[in-house]
Design brief:
The chain starts with a helix and ends in a 21-residue tail after the last strand. The chain is about 35% helix and about 20% strand. The chain is built from 6 helices and 4 strands. Helix 2 crosses helix 5. It is an alpha+beta fold and about 180 residues long. The protein is globular and about 55 Å long.
């Protein structure tokens, strides 16, 4: 029998957009616990390819300044991004170390995505929300993020405190996505 509590947690995972955050700061110890949970994602050959670059306090402003420097944003988009940064407690750059000599890159991307899923479901039943953003300009931040040659950035994970009572979106019935071979 499947653990109903685990199923409930997984099925309760939801995106909370930065515009829904209230600007309150999450304690660093909680951020570390969330990332500790992320660290337990499955990983082929135990490569553990995920890397996290955490921006909070004044460093969020430096990241925002760099984004606006490299990306010519319309004023309304710049204001929206600035608002998202201000309302977020922490912005985590989700990075990945490639291990091409051991594994195909897609396996390392999948493992990193599973780490993000662990991070995300760790927010269930709390007032902490998260949102994974994958802007097109992310690769232009390589130097700013101090990525090594064998590292890539897979986007930003915004974390913030919220009071949303947002309900989960309905999923298509799983039976429409299954083909049995017996």
């Amino acid at each position: 029998m499947i653990n109903k509590k685990i199923s409930s947690i997984i099925q309760s995972r939801k995106s909370i957009y930065p515009s829904e955050f209230n600007g309150k700061i999450i304690e660093d110890e909680i951020i570390v616990q969330l990332l500790e949970n992320a660290n337990y994602a499955p990983t082929h050959k135990m490569t553990q390819p995920w890397r996290f670059k955490i921006f909070c306090n004044e460093s969020k402003k430096k990241l925002l300044d760099e984004i606006t420097r490299i990306k010519d944003l319309a004023e309304n988009k710049k204001k929206k991004l600035e608002n998202n940064f201000n309302k977020s407690s922490h912005i985590i750059c989700i990075c990945m170390k490639k291990n091409n000599d051991l594994l195909p890159e897609w396996e390392e991307i999948a493992a990193t995505a599973m780490a993000v899923q662990n991070l995300w479901i760790s927010c269930v039943d709390s007032n902490i929300g998260g949102y994974w953003s994958t802007p097109k300009y992310i690769n232009k931040l390589r130097k700013f993020l101090k990525l090594n040659v064998d590292e890539i950035c897979l986007g930003f994970f915004y974390l913030g405190v919220h009071s949303s009572i947002k309900t989960n979106k309905n999923r298509d019935n799983i039976s429409e996505k299954i083909i049995w071979f017996r």
